[in-house]
C-alpha cells in the first residue's frame, strides 16, 4: 500500500510503523488505526504479549493488581474481562493480551518473528525507513518505538558462562516447553524480582536449589488471593472512578499514601500503618508514608520494620543476616512482590550462597566455582535482569538527522523531551521509555497516556498540513534537568539499581525514569499539547 503524505507529493509504504506487540504496541496499533492511519507493526516473537510473552518463568506474576494492570480504553473490554486473582500470573496476562489482539484484530497489523535491525530517518523525504532481519525494508512517516523497557536481557559475562553442559535458562527468555526441576540440582543466579518469584516455586520440586545472591533485596509478601465475585462486581461498577483516581495518582493506581510523614506520627501509629501496608502486600509498601523515599530517617523506620519481619520468617539468624539488605534505602530498588520467598530458606533442600563473601570465579562444565567451593549442578538459571530502559533501543541501529545514531545522542544517558521524543529524530516517538514515569507507574495506563498523546500530535500535524514534529534541543535540555532535579530530591540515586543503569557495565549512571508522579507528568504532557506543542518544532 502506498500512502500520500500531507503535501500529496512524497509517498511511504505506511503512515506509521510500530515496533513491538506488547502492551503499548498493541494499543498504538488500535488507536492509530482508529484515527484512519495505515499502521504496520513488527514483532520479534511469534505472537503478541511482549514482556508477558517472554517472561514465563515459574512463579512469574505482575506486581500491580490485575484490575489496575489492564487497559481502560474500552469500557466493554473492561467489563467483559474477569481477572481471577489479585496479582495475575504471566499466563493470565498473556491470555488477556491475546484476547485483546483477537477482539480488535490487532495481529493483522504485525509481521511476527521479524526483528527490526535498523531504522533510518530520511531528511529529504521526511520519512523513516525500517529494516528487518528477514530482509525487508519498509517506510513510514512516523516511527513508534514500543520496544519495552525490560526486554533486552542481561546475561553477565561470567568466565566460563557458556561452558556449562547442563540445562541453562534466562528468566527473561524462558522456553515454551515445560522445564522439569524434579530430581535436579538447580542453581539460580540473581535475587531481583525474577529470581525471588521463581525461587520458591523451583524449590518445591528441585532435589536441591542453590541461590547465588550478590545483593540482597527487600521483598514483601504479595498477599495474593482469588478475586471473589463480589469484589469483581464492585470494581466493575466503579471502574470509571478507579481509573480517574489512578490517572491523577503518583503511580497510576488508586493507592494514596498516609496523609502524614513517617516521623510526624508516634511509633504505635507508624507500626499500625506499616502493618496495614504489609497486609496490602508487595512493592506498594514503599509508599506507605509520603516521605519514605525522600527522607533517610523516615526510610529507616520502614527498613527496620521490614528487617524485623524478615527475621520472624527466616529461622536461621545467620541466613537472615545475609538476606537483609544493607546497601540501599528500602524502596530505592523496586521492592519485590513475592509468594513465600523468605520461607524458602527454611527448607532443607535450599542453600544460600553469599557472593559478597565468596564471589563466583567461574562457571564450569558441571556447575559453579566460587572462591569458597565447587558447586555441582544439573541446571543453571540466570535471573540476572535486563539492560533496562535503553537496551531495547540501543540494540537497534536507529539513525536520525545527519545519520546520527541514538546511541551517540544518548552516550551520556538518555536525552528526551517528555520521554516521548528526541532532538534530531523527527517523527519518532518512544512509548513508556526513559524520561517518562514508565516503570515507576502502572505501565498499562502509562502506555495509554503516551499513545493518546501521540495520536493527538499526529492529528495536529495533519490538521495543520505539517509534515514533521521534532523536540527542540532546549526543550530536551530542560526536561533532562527537570528529571534529574526530581530524582535528586529523592533517595533513589543512592542505590545501585537498574533505574540508574548501574547493573550494566559501562552504562552511564543516570536515573532514567521521571519521578515526579504519573498524574503530574500527564498534566505536563497535556499542557505542552494545549500550548501548540511547546518545545517541539513543527514543519
Ligand atoms: O532483574 P534485576 P529482574 N553475578 O536486575 C544479579 C521487573 N519485574 O529480572 O543486584 C551475580 O532486578 C543482580 O545482583 P546485583 C521489576 O521491575 C517485575 O529480577 O547486581 N549476580 C540481581 O540480584 C524488576 O525490578 C516482576 O548485585 C548477578 C539480579 O541478578 C525488573 O523487572 C517480575 C550478576 C538481577 O535482578 C528486573 O527484575 C520480574 C552477576 N554477574 C521482573 N549480574 C513483577 O512484576 C546480575 N546479578 C513481580
From TrEMBL:
Its cofactor is FAD. Coiled coil: none annotated. SUPFAM superfamilies: FAD/NAD(P)-binding domain. It holds the Pfam family FMO-like. One of its GO terms (molecular function) is N,N-dimethylaniline monooxygenase activity. InterPro entries: FAD-binding_Monooxygenases, FAD/NAD-bd_sf, Flavin_mOase-like. Keywords: FAD, Flavoprotein, Monooxygenase, NADP, Oxidoreductase. Belongs to the FAD-binding monooxygenase family. This is Putative steroid monooxygenase. It comes from Gordonia namibiensis NBRC 108229. The lineage of its organism: Bacteria, Bacillati, Actinomycetota, Actinomycetes, Mycobacteriales.
Amino acid at each position: 500500500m502506498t500512502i500520500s503524505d500531507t503535501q500529496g507529493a512524497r509517498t511511504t509504504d505506511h503512515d506509521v510503523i510500530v515496533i513491538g506487540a506488547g502492551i503499548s504496541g498493541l494499543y498504538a496499533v488500535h488507536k492509530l488505526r482508529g484515527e484512519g492511519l495505515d499502521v504496520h507493526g513488527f514483532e520479534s516473537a511469534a505472537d503478541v504479549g511482549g514482556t508477558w510473552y517472554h517472561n514465563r518463568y515459574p512463579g512469574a506474576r505482575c506486581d500491580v493488581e490485575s484490575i489496575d494492570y489492564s487497559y481502560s480504553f474500552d469500557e466493554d473490554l473492561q467489563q467483559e474481562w474477569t481477572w481471577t486473582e489479585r496479582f495475575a500470573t504471566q499466563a493470565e496476562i498473556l491470555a488477556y493480551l491475546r484476547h485483546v489482539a483477537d477482539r480488535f484484530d490487532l495481529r493483522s497489523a504485525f509481521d511476527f518473528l521479524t526483528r527490526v535491525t535498523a531504522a533510518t530517518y530520511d531528511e529529504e523525504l521526511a520519512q523513516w525507513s525500517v529494516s528487518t532481519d528477514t530482509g525487508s525494508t519498509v517506510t513510514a512517516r512516523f516511527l513508534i518505538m514500543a520496544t519495552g523497557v525490560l526486554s533486552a536481557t542481561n546475561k553477565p559475562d561470567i568466565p566460563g558462562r557458556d561452558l556449562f553442559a547442563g540445562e541453562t535458562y534466562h528468566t527473561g527468555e524462558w522456553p515454551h516447553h515445560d522445564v522439569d526441576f524434579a530430581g535436579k540440582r538447580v542453581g539460580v543466579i540473581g535475587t531481583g524480582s525474577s529470581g525471588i518469584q521463581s525461587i520458591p516455586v523451583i524449590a518445591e520440586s528441585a532435589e536441591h536449589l542453590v541461590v547465588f545472591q550478590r545483593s540482597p533485596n527487600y521483598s514483601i509478601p504479595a498477599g495474593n488471593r482469588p478475586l471473589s465475585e463480589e469484589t469483581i462486581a464492585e470494581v466493575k461498577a466503579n471502574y470509571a472512578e478507579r481509573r480517574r483516581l489512578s490517572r491523577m495518582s503518583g503511580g497510576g493506581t488508586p493507592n494514596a499514601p498516609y496523609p502524614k510523614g513517617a516521623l510526624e506520627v508516634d511509633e504505635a501509629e507508624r507500626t499500625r500503618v506499616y502493618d496495614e501496608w504489609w497486609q496490602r502486600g508487595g512493592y506498594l509498601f514503599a509508599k506507605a508514608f509520603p516521605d519514605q523515599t525522600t527522607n533517610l530517617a523516615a526510610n529507616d523506620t520502614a527498613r527496620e520494620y521490614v528487617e524485623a519481619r524478615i527475621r520472624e520468617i527466616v529461622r536461621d539468624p545467620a541466613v537472615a543476616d545475609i538476606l537483609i539488605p544493607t546497601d540501599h534505602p528500602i524502596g530505592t530498588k523496586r521492592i519485590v512482590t513475592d509468594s513465600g520467598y523468605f520461607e524458602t530458606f527454611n527448607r532443607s533442600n535450599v542453600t544460600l550462597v553469599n557472593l559478597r563473601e565468596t564471589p563466583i570465579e567461574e562457571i564450569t562444565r558441571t556447575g559453579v566455582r566460587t572462591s569458597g567451593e565447587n558447586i555441582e549442578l544439573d541446571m543453571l538459571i540466570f535471573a540476572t535482569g535486563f539492560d533496562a530502559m535503553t537496551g531495547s533501543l540501543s540494540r537497534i541501529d536507529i539513525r536520525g538527522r545527519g545519520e546520527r545514531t541514538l546511541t551517540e545522542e544518548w552516550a551520556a544517558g538518555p536525552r528526551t523531551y517528555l520521554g516521548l521524543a528526541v532532538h534530531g529524530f523527527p517523527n519518532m516517538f518512544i512509548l513508556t521509555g526513559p524520561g517518562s514515569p514508565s516503570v515507576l507507574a502502572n505501565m498499562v495506563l502509562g502506555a495509554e497516556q503516551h499513545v493518546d498523546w501521540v495520536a493527538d500530535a499526529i492529528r495536529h500535524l495533519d490538521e495543520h498540513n505539517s509534515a514533521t514534529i521534532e523536540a527542540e534541543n532546549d526543550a530536551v535540555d530542560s526536561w533532562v534537568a527537570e528529571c534529574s532535579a526530581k530524582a535528586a530530591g529523592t533517595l533513589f540515586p543512592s542505590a545501585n539499581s537498574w533505574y540508574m543503569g548501574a547493573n550494566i557495565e559501562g552504562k552511564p549512571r543516570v536515573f532514567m525514569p521521571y519521578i515526579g508522579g504519573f498524574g503530574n507528568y500527564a498534566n505536563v504532557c497535556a499542557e505542552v499539547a494545549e500550548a501548540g506543542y511547546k518545545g517541539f518544532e513543527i514543519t
